[in-house]
Each structure stands twice: as C-alpha cells, then as structure tokens.
Protein 1
Amino acid sequence: MKEPKFLNTYKTDINDQFKDLLNLDKSEFYFEPISDYLIIKNSTKMPKRIRSSIFLEILNGLEKDYNVYTKLACGIEYLHEFSLVHDDIQDKDEIRRGNSTLWKEFGTEKSILLGNIIKIISDTITSDYNSKIKASTAKEVIKTFNTVCINMIEGQYLDIMYEDESDISLEKYLYMISRKTGALMSLSFYLPSILHESDKQDNVLFKTLGNIFGLLFQISDDMLGIWGDPSDTGKSNFSDFENNKKTYPILLAKEKLSKKDNKIFNELSSNDKNTEVKDLTDLMDSYNIKSIIKSDCLKYIECSRDLISKINLQQTSKKNLNELFDYVIERVK
C-alpha cells in the first residue's frame, strides 16, 4: 500500500527547515557527525517525517496557517531523532536507515553527547515559540514536550528492563509502547489542538486518537522486525529475538503456542548461530500469529474511524487521517 499523499505535502518544507536549524551553529566539534547522521543524502533512505506531517496536517485541518508552525514541527522531529540515538546505544543496534548508527560510528560516549545536543536543539526550537503565542499556551506547549520526553524515557527504561524478564504480559507491553513510541506519536495529534485552543472534548479526542496511532505504529514496526524485508527496514529480522525483545508478535506467539512448541521457539530464539529466521516465522505462521495481529489492529482502526468522525476537523483532513490509519499496518518500512 502506498503512503498517504499528504505525507509528501509537507516533507520538503520540513526537511529544508530541519537543515536550516542544524546549520545555525556549526561548531567544529559536533556539527559534522550530527549533520552526516541526520541529513541523509540518499533520498530512498530519507525519514518519512510522519510525526511532523501529522502535526501540520491537523493544524491545516483546524484552519491554522501550518507554515507558521513548520519550525515547531522540526522540534518534534529533533526530539524523535534524540530518542533514536539513545535507543540505538541501549539496544546495541548497529544499523539505522541502512547506515551505521551514531554509536557504531563514533563510540558510545561521543554518541550520548551528540544525542544530548540533538535534544537541546529541540528544546531551543520549542522555547523560541514562547514569544509568538499566548503565554498560557506557550506554557502548555513546553509542559507537553517535557512530559512526552519523560514518558519516552520511561518506555525505553521498561523496554530494557523487560529484556531481563523471562516473560511479560501483553498488557504490560502495551503500556510500555504507549510510552516509548506512543507518547511522541500522540503529541503530533493533540499539540495542534493545544495551539488551536480547542475545547476540552476535542483535546481528549485528539489525544486518544494519537494514542491509538502510536500503538498501531509500534505493533506494525514489530511485525516488520520479523516479517519485513531487511532491505526495506534496514534492520536484521533476527535482532528482536537475539536481544530478547518483548514485541507483540513474540509475546502473542508465547501465549498461543503449545508447551512443546514454546520450548522449540525458545530454543530457536536463543540459538542465533544455527537458527534461520524462517524456522521461527514458520512456527509462528503455523499458529496464524500475523493474521491474529492484523485482526487486532483492525479493531483499533475501527475505533479510530469513530473518533475521526467526531473531531472538529475539515473533511479533507479527516479523509487523510483515515488513509493514514489504513496505511500504518500495511507499510513495508
């Protein structure tokens, strides 16, 4: 399934502004490594800018001039990039978007510092809006960004903590991804309503819609981590098993597999030298794990359609959001 057209509506403006913001301070000590990592020259590996595009699309649907907020959209993207740098260090992932991760290229210590600089760029962008919007709204924007950052860090902490546990429930997993992935995704949906000064009911609807999208996006990511094409995802299909990651497909498989097959599944997962990913996916496919997940996702999508029908948004934007929810579980990267 092709990505929704609206995602490309804003991408050029976002990328141009993204580069300009990075170019404001060309310190010889950190500009080049950050620039090489963030400004991807290969267009096929360019980030989709989903979070910032959603943010601008909803502002547009609320009849706000989205051009005024392109810089703030980049603040969302810089916050996202900060989280990826630190996640890659902690997860020991060596590839990101088909290239070496920052820690693999420059070492753990330097990449922690580089990640912190990326976070400060996001903070600076957010603070710059204080003088452009009403004081009470500016305060709410700053508070919201800080809360989202804390929630993301909590989610990553839980993700690492769960690696040392033999098993966790799907309920715990869903809470973890609502923080790690969902918090920032959700921000893209409800930050426009804060800037628009929407009523409380619309704020709740946007936030709930964002929470659902965050869950769907991570579940989709989990499926790609196992069944996706590594040339599209830029990630090994075995890394989630190798790192003892608790993902939706893996946890669901452990719930559905028989005791005998669970034992085989665990042995295959821990024996990376002699295991083919196909051995694991064949076992999961015999229990229709992927089909069950798709069915679970469709329930979330039905809920999202109901919420979209209720929010105060132009019809074109409602249509675009519905297309986005359909796309998220069919994407290939």
Note: The beta strands are 95-96, 99-100.
Protein 2
Amino acid sequence: MRIITLFIIYCLILGSSFADSKRSIQGLYSSYLKGLFQAESGLYDESLAYLEEARKRNSESSHIRLKIASILIRQGEIKKAEKELLIAKDIDPQGIDASLALIFLYSYTQRDEDLEIEYEDFLKRSYQNKPEDLRVSEYLAQFYFYKDRIPESLEIYKKIVSDNPDYVDAIFWLGYLYEEVGKVSEAVSIWEKGLAVEPDNAPILNSLGYTYAEQGQNLDTAEEMIKKALAKEPDNGAYLDSLGWLYFQKKNYKQAEDYLKRAAFALKDPIVYEHLGDLYAALNKREEAIQYYNEGLKYFPDNLTLQEKVKKYEQQ
C-alpha cells in the first residue's frame, strides 16, 4: 500500500513539473515571437520588453541576447548592447554571431582598437574550428601581415602551402614572407616551385627576378622573368622598378634611368626613390641623388634608409 501511495505522489509531482515546464516553454516562445513581431513593426520599446521577458525565462540563450542587442543598438544603447553581446559570446564561445555583431558595433562606434581585438579573436576561433577553410586561413594570415606580425603570418602560409601545394597565390605570399624574415634561399626555392606550377604567374616572376637582381646573380634569367611579368602588366610600377634595378645591376644606366623614372611616375614607394637616388649617386650626380632621396622623404618622412642616404651625400 505504501509503495502504491509513493508511486501516485511521484506521478502527481512529475505531472505537475511537466505541466509547469510546458507552460514555461510556451511562455518563452510567446514572449520571443511577440518581441520579434513588435521589432518588425518598429515598436522597439515593446519589443525589448517582450524579449527581456524571454531572457528571464531562458538566460542561457545567446540567440535571445543577440536579438536584444540588435534592438538596443537601434535605440542607441551601445553600452547595454555590448554587454549583451559579450554575455552571448561567453554562452556560446564556438559561435560566430556574437563576434560578428561586436565587430559591427565597434566599427559603427569607431572603436578601432576594440575592433581589431575582436576581429583577431573571431578569425582565430574560426581558424581553430575550420583550419582547412582557405578563406579563413588567409584572412588570419593577412591580418597578421597587416599588424606586422610576420612570423605568425608565415606559419599559417606554410600550412596552407603544405596542404595545397599547387595554390600559387599562397606560394607567392609564402616566398614574400620568407624574404621578409631574411630567409632568401627559402623564398627563391618556393617561388621556383610556384613557377613550375604556373610558369606565367606575374607576381612570382617579378619577385624572383627582382631577388636575383638584388643578389647580382642569374641576371639574364631575371631580365626574362621581369619582362614576362611586364608583358602581362605593362603599367605595374613595382615591375618597372624591378627591371630598372636589374639594368642598374647590369650597369646599363640609361635603361635603368628610363624604367626607374617610369616606376616613380606609376608608384609612390620609398624603394623606387632610393633606387633613383642610388642610380644618380653611381653616376656621380650627387645633387640629383639627394633630390630623389628627398623626394622620397616628402612622401615617407620616417624612412630611415632615405634619411641616412641624404645625410651621407650632403656631408660629402
């Protein structure tokens, strides 16, 4: 008899709990849907009241908090919106919606430092979740490059090329980053592999040709490579500079002057002005050399190389 009584009581409790739970869920969805409807009608105060009621019923829903944040942004309540989004991000650390909303919010309010921090965090989490996604990998690598965090960018591009050995855009960037950290032989090696995949790739042809010219080796091969790149992009200032510098290395100063001046017209870059200054210095035209170094400093006043060369030739 006691067992039967306990069983009946248990059933009554369970039935009551289930009914309460059902009513709670119905209340939650009712508040949420009413909040959405009011928002669609432009009644943001009413929408917020219903959504906040839904949040009380389920405080662990990142989705409800995202909706509340969107209403708060419309009302100009930026601080409150940010708080909701940060909580939503903590609730669902693997999701991306809260991060994207925060990126929008920081961009909208011109909080550049917070924007960069959130953008990096978003990219890192996306990369950890999907390291095989080329777009995410490249976005993160380019972000590190933009922030002058070259070794971190290099590591990502190494993985991209390891997983995608025929992806020439990544091959170009990997070689470029190798050169940035002083690993010139690795840069040359990876670019040579890139040309084996795509012999007409202009950025790799130019980069490899320019590197040969800088080292003073394979100058005839380098000339062919850079001319091939220029045939595809005849107005590219970087390619014009590469060919001009190659002719400088060959001591063909007339052609060097022609291409370097064309490069300076097409591209404002400190290296182009440095090359022109070096050309005139080699021709013992010190005033013209100083003129072009100073021209570069007009656009790039913090360039130490140009500053040092101006000082050197002015002292002479």
Note: The chain has a mean pLDDT of 88.
Protein 3
Amino acid sequence: MLGRQKSVAARTLRERLIVAMLALAATFSIFVTGTIIVILTKETLGFFAFPDVTLGEFFGSFEWNPLLGSEKHFGIWPLVSGTLLVMAIAASFALPIGLITAVYLSEYASPRVRSVLKPALEILAGIPTVVYGFFALTVITPMLQKLTPAFGSYNAMSAGLATGIMVLPIVCSMSEDSLRAVPRSLRDGAFALGGTRFDVSVKVVIPAALSGIVAAFLLAISRAVGETMIVPLAAGGIAQITANPAAEVQTMTAYLVQIFLGDAPATGVEYKSSYAVAAMLFVMTFALTMVGQWTLRRFREEYD
C-alpha cells in the first residue's frame, strides 16, 4: 500500500514538473516577443527624436536616401515597394506550383513516389538562404539576361524567383498535409456521384482543405517578406518605387543588412533608422499572421 502511494506521488510530481516546464516554455516565448516589441518601440521613438526626422516625411515622402550626407530623406515607401515587388514575384511563382505539387502528391502520386518526392522537396528548406542568393546571381540572372537585355546584374525578378524557390517547400508540405487530412469519405462520395479524380481534387478536396492551404500561403508570404540574404545579393541596393521586375530595388531587410555591416555609427540617425524599418517590417508580418489566424477560424472545417 505504501509503495503504491509513493508511486502515485511520484507520478503526480512528474506531471506537475512537465506542466511547469510547458508553462515556462510558453512564458519564455511571450517574454521574447514582448522584449522585441519593447526594443523596437524604444529605438524607433529614438529615431523620430532626431530633429530632421518626422512622421510626415517617414510616411508621406517617396524618397529613401539616409546615407547622402546633408541630403537625407527618410520616406519608407521605396523600401516597402521593393519588398512587396519581390514578395509578389515569389508568391506568383511558389503558390501555384506549390499547390499543384501538393495536389499531385496527395491525390495522384503512389505511396512510393510520395515517399521519395516529399523528402526531396523538403530538403530545399534546409539549404542556407545565402546559397539561394548566389544561385540567383550565377544561374537565374544569366538566364534572364539571355531572354532580354533589360535585366541587369541586379534585379527584382531574380531575387523574387530565388525567394519563391526557397518558400516552395513550405507551400508544398503544408498544403499536402491539409489535403491529406480531408476524410476519405468525402472523396468516396464524390467518386460515387460520378466525379473524376480531377473533379474530386478541384471541387471537393481543395475547398475542404482551404483553411490549411491559405495558412500555408500566408506563412510562405511572411517568409518571403522577411527574407534577408537573397535580396541583398540579387536585388541590388537602389531604393525606388517601381513595378518593373527588371529594375534594381532595395527591400527592407536588404537595408538592414547594409546598415549593420558597420559603416554607419551606432549613435547616428542612419543606424537608428534601421529600427524604424524593422518596426515597419514587424507590423507587416504581424498583420499577415493575424490574417492567417482569422482565415483559419473563418474557414476551418471539422469532421467527425
């Protein structure tokens, strides 16, 4: 009897320790997020404390030149434009190809083919992003230049395509998991009504897995927005508002890399501007995350 009580007490203590560790992990993640927000807010306010920086110029100007001596301009929109252009190119490449690949793996591929192709795709996620940057410079850009001389050594198209290749495994893997989570009974019912495999895939399975697919899309887009190493290597360093994929652009993350190379003094307005850009980037990715959460709640399908 005494041994049984000790066993129960030991199990209870063990469960309490596990719960405490899980609570500590959750609290730590909240603490890290809160610390990031506090630091970004503090340093961003320090940036706007400089006499030559105003909110009106930051959000109302269309020129970003913080390193030109006395002629400094701090309009954020050229960096936002470059970021959105690269993101749009990456999304246009990765989202349809990723979804088509996911449908093939889920609905058409044999178990043997799936066991080979899916790990091969996920290997792409483990490649360092700097490798994608050099791939863009040495492979994608020369290919684009053979198509048309409009593409220079640095351009948004090359950076966008390399970023799209980088986020492709996210779209494929998460979308395929969502498609395979659709109950078999829905497929069997559609086949019983005379639907072809294509009809079942497009009209039954994809709509049923829509929330997971949209979440995969938004996660991939967020990853493309925050990409750091591909864009400085392939997109260039000219901050300008343009929709031309052959143009050289600068993204927000590329500017952060430029500043933290050490050329700007840590107490100057140029260095402080990096925190304002980082705060803007944080707001953009946070908004995408919130849209993803709303989409999951709005379109989530539950099956018995």
Note: Residues 2-48 form the longest helix (47 residues).
Protein 4
Amino acid sequence: MAEFFIRHADATQILLFAGAISLLWAIEHLVISLPEGEKLRHTGVNALFALTALPIELVLSAACLAVSRETLDHGLGLVNLFPDPSSVWVRDALMFVALDLFDYLYHRLMHHVPPLWRFHLVHHTDQHVDSSTTVREHPGETAIRSAALVVWTFLLGASFEVLLMRQAAETVFAILAHSALRMPPGVARVMGFLFVTPNLHHVHHHNVLPYTDSNFGGVFSVWDRLFGTFAELEAEDTVFGLDTHMEPTTVGDFGSLVAMPFAQPITGASGKSEPTNPSLAGAASALG
C-alpha cells in the first residue's frame, strides 16, 4: 500500500487536498450563515489560484523527488551527520520535525523580507477566511515556496516517504487552520499547546500588527512559543484582511490580486501597519 502511494504521490496529494477541502467547505456552508452567492464568488476567486499553482507544484514536486533520491543515494544531507538511530521511526520523526521547523522559518521570512512579502500579502488580503483561503496563494509565492522546499530537502537529506507524510499532514492542518469553524475554547487550548488550531491561525490573519506577524507554525505551534511569536486573540476582536489593502473590489478580484505584488510600493519595513484599534494597543506593546 505504501509503495502505491509513493509511486502515485502527486495524484495522492491532489486527491487528499481536494477531498479534505471539499468536505470542510461543505460543512462550513451548512453551519455558517453566509449568502450562497457571496460564498461561491469568494470561493471562485480563491479556486483560480489553485489552478495557477497546480502546474508549478507538479514540476517542483518532481524536482523534489529527484533531489531526495540523489541525497539518499549519495548519503548527503544534515540528517546523515547524526548517528544512525536504533529505529527508522526515530529518524523519520526527526526529519518530519525538521521539515516543520523549515516551514515556520520560511513563513517568517515571507513576512519580514519585503520582496517576499509582496507575494505573500495576497494570501492575507482575504477578508472572509475559510477553507478556500488555503489555496489563495500567488503563483509567484507557489514557485518560491516549492523551490525553497527543494533546497531544504537537499540540505536536510529528507526521504521521499517523510516528504509525503509531511505534505499530507500539512495539507490537513492548513485546511483546518483556515476553516471558518473555530474549536470550543477548552479543546482549542489543549490542542494549541502542541498543534496549530483554527483559533490560533485566525490570529495570524488579523488585519494589523503585531498579530499579522504571529503564529507562523504549520503543524506544530511550539515553534511560535519557543521563538516568541505566539499570540492569542478573541474571535470578536479578530478582523480578517490586511489594513493596507482593505478595498473589497480589489481584494475580491483575481486579476487585481495577481497584479498586486507589482502594482504599488509597499511602505514600511514589512508593509504592514501598527494597530489602529486602541483596545489592541496594549497587546501590541506586550508582543513587542
């Protein structure tokens, strides 16, 4: 069975992603009261980004597989600097955690390096975060992210089996994290000690600093706790979007979104504003 999924990795990822996002989208539609036409228009715009991402993902996934095979064949990668563990599961677990740390570091770079932020901000301009927001990624960022993963695979020496497991986990957690459905506070608090939850990731999609630059984790939330980027915010205080790009006609138009990284200069170090809500000013100071 494992051999089948490895041989058909691209198809497996596509089916997993499509199935998970379709199921959650349907649940959101049943549970959350949102005009059907509005939700369909919002989903339609985001779905167009999935179409632009697919060919890029397929090409660079093949490159990632080739690099993974080369590193394993020649004993390359940081993982080979450690003594061979007694169990292959220990080795795989270490690689999985290292890949998740890479995702955290990559995400922080996308926020703090202005040329990269130009592409990533498209994802943050969504003012109605739901499961479809998961695929709202500028094709330029898709290329950057996938190419970065190829480089990290080479440096780490990750096996393709672990890459596949990591991709499956990231897919599930990314869709859940962007879901419009929040967990009950008690459940979210317990799960949030280790894993990324919708309640935590919604904070990341709040429209002003310091919250936009918090909760970067992909699967594990521990990186944010370790590196001082963890934040919490009540649902009623969370406003989705980006305060520098709040025009509904612009952020709801696919063509405008594709052109956005090239359309205008991004002001400030990160292109994001400080909190404009006085009630959040104290929290901004606390997060520094």
Note: Confidence is low (pLDDT under 50) at residues 276-288.
